[in-house]
């Protein structure tokens, strides 16, 4: 399939992943038609708009570290790429991931893997943790890993607008419609069907439909273990100076980071309560009362006083096989590509995914980062690539 510069690419889903693919297709010289099918241009319930918009290099899989480094470079270079007024408010500040004595060996291995890939991770012992973060209760903490560079947070909405507008300025058409399925002919994608029963001819179809990406290919009988799982974010105020507060991940699973003059925080629900959440965007306040607040107040005494300002819930596009992205061509339908399943890290990995998928379409191979480990083959083979650093 290599060296294609013309034809029609239909991308289903026009939030950060779909828009990044469209953007990089043009960036790399694709001169054909690019249609992005997006059912809701307000992006009201998209994961992108509802995300915590943070980036870390602390992952268990080397490919994820590389994708994050690419993402951090992309965020740092936003003005060079999109012009002097472009701004995504990138705050480059580390994730501080706490560990108990039981975590030490795994965390050391993780930090050396991340460092080998180019991340900059410090290992902090209890005294160093207390010295640098005196507001933290650390008596039960044996170590913390702390990203010195390439980690932080940003404004995902602004990032989406920049990438999407840049794509539109280069003749990428956004079509407001719901894509209902793929049309196959002789084992290849021939088009995409819309809800209106209109059909669009396509030389490639990319499934970037986020938490709904499994539904889009269901009719083809293609198993895609991606499910919408609800995650609630609470915006709070507390008597704690956020200036030096990193993105903190507690051993309980609770996380918190500064946002404006307050903080945002969250925690995953217990596995037994983490059902598929189609259409459910109600914040889960019980989670705050029963799990999040007690955990945060234990770790940071100042958070005993927290006041909730507002809360929202969005969906992770959870890869239930291994918590990793599913990226690249289907193993038997070469012009059907996936870009989904990121399980809570899809905004930070959108630039690398955009570039990688564009390389696949244009050149039939990966050139910048080898995304083969995230390929669809492992789904069919049932051989997971487990990501261990998950929240
Ligand atoms: C609470 C929360 C916190 C998060 N925190 C982070 C974080 O800190 N860092 C990070 O990197 N990631 C985070 N994520 C994950 C991240 O938001 C997602 O991985 C990422 O936004 C996925 O982008 P996407 O474009 O694939 O999906 P989405 O943003 O969900 O976009 C998919 C789009 O496809 C459209 N669509 C779906 N089906 C169809 C169809 N059939 N036809 C037409 N259009 C369709 C939808 O309308 C939607 O706009 C978080 C997610 C949540 C919910």
UniProtKB/TrEMBL annotation:
PANTHER family given in the database record: FAD-DEPENDENT OXIDOREDUCTASE DOMAIN-CONTAINING PROTEIN 1, SARCOSINE DEHYDROGENASE-RELATED
One GO process term, biological-process aspect: mitochondrial respiratory chain complex I assembly
Coiled-coil region list: none
InterPro entries in the cross-refs: FAD-dep_OxRdtase, FAD/NAD-bd_sf
Gene Ontology molecular functions: oxidoreductase activity
Signal sequence segment: none
The protein's name in its UniProt record: FAD-dependent oxidoreductase
Membrane spanning residue stretches: 6-25
FAD dependent oxidoreductase domain span: 9-359
Record key words, sorted: Membrane, Oxidoreductase, Transmembrane, Transmembrane helix
Record SUPFAM superfamilies: FAD/NAD(P)-binding domain (SSF51905)
Any one of the GO CC terms: cytoplasm
């Amino acid at each position: 399939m290599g060296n294609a510069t013309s034809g029609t690419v239909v991308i289903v889903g026009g939030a950060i992943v779909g828009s990044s693919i469209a953007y990089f297709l043009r960036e790399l010289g694709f001169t054909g038609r690019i249609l992005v099918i997006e059912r809701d241009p307000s992006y009201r319930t998209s994961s992108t708009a509802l995300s915590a918009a943070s980036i870390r290099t602390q992952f268990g899989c080397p490919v994820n570290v590389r994708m994050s480094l690419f993402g951090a470079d992309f965020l740092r270079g936003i003005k060079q790429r999109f012009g002097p007024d472009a701004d995504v408010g990138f705050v480059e500040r580390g994730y501080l991931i706490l560990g108990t004595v039981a975590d030490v060996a795994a965390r050391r291995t993780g930090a050396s893997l991340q460092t080998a890939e180019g991340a900059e991770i410090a290992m902090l012992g209890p005294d160093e943790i207390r010295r640098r973060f005196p507001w933290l209760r650390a008596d039960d903490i044996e170590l913390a890993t702390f990203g010195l560079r390439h980690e932080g947070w940003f404004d995902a909405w602004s990032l989406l607008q920049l990438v999407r507008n840049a794509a539109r300025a280069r003749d990428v058409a956004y079509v407001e419609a719901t894509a209902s399925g793929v049309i196959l002919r002789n084992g290849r994608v021939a088009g995409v069907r819309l809800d209106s029963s209109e059909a669009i001819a396509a030389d490639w179809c990319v499934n970037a439909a986020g938490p709904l990406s499994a539904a889009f290919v269901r009719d083809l009988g293609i198993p895609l273990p991606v499910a919408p799982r609800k995650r609630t974010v609470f915006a709070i105020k507390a008597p704690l100076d956020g200036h030096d507060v990193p993105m903190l991940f507690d051993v309980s699973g609770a996380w918190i980071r500064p946002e404006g003059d307050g903080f945002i925080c969250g925690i995953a629900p217990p596995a037994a309560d983490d059902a598929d959440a189609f259409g459910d965007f109600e914040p889960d306040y019980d989670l705050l009362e029963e799990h999040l607040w007690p955990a945060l107040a234990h770790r940071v005494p100042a958070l005993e006083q927290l006041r909730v300002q507002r809360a929202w819930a969005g969906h992770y596009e959870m890869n239930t096989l291994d918590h990793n992205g599913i990226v690249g061509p289907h193993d038997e339908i070469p012009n059907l590509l996936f870009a989904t399943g990121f399980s809570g890290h899809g905004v930070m990995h959108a630039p690398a995914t955009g570039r990688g998928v564009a390389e696949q379409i244009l050149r039939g191979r990966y050139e910048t980062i080898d995304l083969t480990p995230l390929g669809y083959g492992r789904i069919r083979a049932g051989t997971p690539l487990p990501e261990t650093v998950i929240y």
